[in-house]
């Protein structure tokens, strides 16, 4: 048994390490758009839209505003697809499991990389589908990797936030491509290399991830991936039965201590001030985020009067700051892991459980995983938070739909020793 336990530990560590590399090197590359645009302009993409205009003193000035508009449109469409398709992608993940979702993500990411490799200045319009495919494929990688935190119960929140931070920092991949281009490596070679890396995604899909989902809480001696011999993995039915039993026990705890409140309908949750305010807040944050990335290059062109060396230097500086995501985000997870099981002082009433009791009466869903995902330092994943709030209020019907918040939580179980309000985030 000790050999089996050591083997499982090694496999889980490999799953974690390869997932971190995948999120850091592939998943969020599209948000390094500012670095890629600099290279694309050098290669002459959409250069036919630049026209000569007459400036002051009758001087001829090259006006490339049309080119900038096309590049901004490419990123706008890609960012829209990245967020809009998160909802159906979550349904796909819940319905068909990890393997099918990752195969789709790998195909989309590979096809997008191949389109970029084959694109030229004469076929600049290939950027529209290529960048969108990269964005959607990347978010599928992140979505399927979030469940890896379930393998490490005590450090679950830390791993979730670390993966989110790595997703942010993966935008530096386009910075690497930019630096390689300046060193003489062609765009085609760089993106063909990304295509070849799809083999690693496939190997990880079959050997280091389950076919369906990683349950939480994790059963004893849980195994996953392709293994030799008879597997000791508990059946899906056993896992669901265990989760349902623990969910029922959690509801009994809620009913004994909480006042009886009528369960809110989907419409009531959708029209609640909490949902509307979060929707407004996230919309503004996402708009600022995407607007800055999409307009950074033309803004620098204007401020530096088109000096290429200065534009390149400032874009490199911005890309380096994006690397800080993987350094900052895990601190949120460490706070969650340290405090989520910590007993409170007598008479102390945490703020978030009160918020939960008012907003999600008898919802029966533990809010902690939701906050782990939202407050992880990742702007893209936050985009599904508002949709998740209203869906989670529907109760039993949505027990399998929780990967809309990029995380699977089978059974929604909590230890029986916890007070019902501990199902939410404890006071920090």
What is the typical, i.e. mean, pLDDT?
A: 75
**CATH level 1 class label:** Mainly Alpha
Number of domains: 1
Rg, alpha carbons? 24 Å
Largest sheet: 2 strands, antiparallel
Specify the structural class: mainly alpha
User: In the CATH classification, which architecture applies?
Assistant: Up-down Bundle
Q: Which ranges are low-confidence, i.e. pLDDT below 50, for 5 or more consecutive residues? A: 230-236, 249-260, 351-428
- Number of separate helices: 19
Distance between the termini: 39 Å
The backbone outline, from C-alpha atoms, is globular
Strand order of the largest sheet: 1-2
Question: What string, H for helix and E for strand, traces the elements in order?
Answer: HHEEHHHHHHHHHHHHHHHHH
Report the portion of residues in β strands: under 5%
What is the name of the CATH topology? Growth Hormone, Chain: A
Assembly type of the shown chains?
single chain
Question: What fraction, in percent, of the residue positions are helical?
Answer: 55-70%
Q: Count of DSSP E strands?
A: 2
Membrane topology: Multi-pass membrane protein
Keywords: Membrane, Transmembrane, Transmembrane helix
Protein name: Solute carrier family 43 member 3b isoform X2
Pfam families: MFS_1
Describe this entry's structure for a reader.
The chain is mainly α and 428 residues long. β1 and β2 form a beta hairpin. The protein contains 19 helices and 2 strands. A two-stranded antiparallel sheet has the order 1-2. 63% of the residues lie in helices and 2% in strands. It has helices spanning 2-27, 33-43, 65-84, 86-96, 98-118, 127-145, 156-169, 172-182, 187-196, 198-207, 236-257, 266-270, 273-303, 308-322, 325-339, 351-359, 368-374, 379-382, 385-392; strands at residues 51-54, 60-63. It has a single domain (1-53, 61-428), classed as Growth Hormone, Chain: A. The model is unreliable at 230-236, 249-260 and 351-428 (pLDDT under 50).
């Amino acid at each position: 048994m000790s050999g089996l336990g050591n083997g499982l530990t090694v496999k889980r560590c490999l799953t974690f390490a390869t997932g971190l590399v995948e999120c850091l090197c592939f998943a969020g590359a599209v948000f390094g758009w500012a670095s890629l645009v600099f290279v694309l302009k050098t290669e002459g993409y959409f250069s036919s839209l630049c026209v000569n205009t007459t400036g002051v003193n009758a001087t001829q000035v090259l006006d490339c505003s049309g080119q900038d508009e096309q590049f901004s449109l490419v990123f706008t469409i890609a960012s829209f697809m990245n967020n809009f398709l998160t909802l159906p992608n979550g349904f796909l993940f819940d319905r068909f499991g990890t393997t099918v979702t990752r195969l789709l993500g790998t195909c989309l990411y590979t096809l997008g990389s191949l389109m970029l490799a084959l694109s030229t200045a004469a076929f600049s319009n290939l950027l529209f589908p290529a960048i969108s495919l990269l964005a959607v494929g990347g978010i599928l990688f992140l979505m399927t990797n979030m469940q890896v935190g379930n393998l490490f119960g005590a450090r679950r929140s830390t791993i979730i936030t670390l993966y989110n931070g790595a997703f942010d920092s993966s935008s530096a991949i386009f910075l690497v491509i930019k630096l390689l281009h300046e060193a003489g490596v062609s765009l085609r070679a760089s993106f063909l290399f990304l295509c070849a890396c799809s083999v690693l995604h496939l190997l990880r899909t079959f050997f280091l991830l389950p076919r369906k989902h990683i349950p939480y809480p994790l059963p004893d001696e849980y195994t996953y991936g392709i293994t030799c011999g008879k597997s000791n993995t508990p059946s899906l039915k056993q896992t669901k039965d265990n989760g349902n039993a623990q969910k029922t026990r959690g509801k009994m705890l809620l009913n004994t201590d909480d006042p009886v409140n009528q369960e809110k309908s989907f419409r009531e949750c959708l029209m609640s001030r909490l949902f509307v305010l979060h929707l407004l807040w996230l919309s503004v944050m996402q708009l600022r985020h995407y607007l800055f990335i999409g307009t950074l290059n033309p803004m620098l062109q204007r401020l530096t009067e088109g000096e290429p060396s200065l534009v390149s230097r400032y874009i490199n500086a911005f890309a380096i700051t994006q690397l800080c995501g993987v350094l900052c985000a895990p601190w949120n997870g460490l706070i969650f892991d340290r405090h989520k099981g910590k007993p409170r002082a007598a008479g102390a009433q945490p703020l978030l459980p009160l918020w939960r009791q008012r907003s999600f009466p008898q919802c029966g869903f533990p809010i902690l995983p939701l906050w782990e995902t939202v407050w992880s330092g990742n702007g893209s994943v936050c985009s599904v938070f508002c949709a998740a709030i209203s869906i989670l209020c529907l109760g039993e019907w949505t027990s399998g739909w929780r990967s809309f918040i990029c995380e699977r939580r089978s059974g929604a179980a909590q230890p029986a020793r916890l007070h019902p309000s501990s199902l939410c985030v404890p006071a920090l």
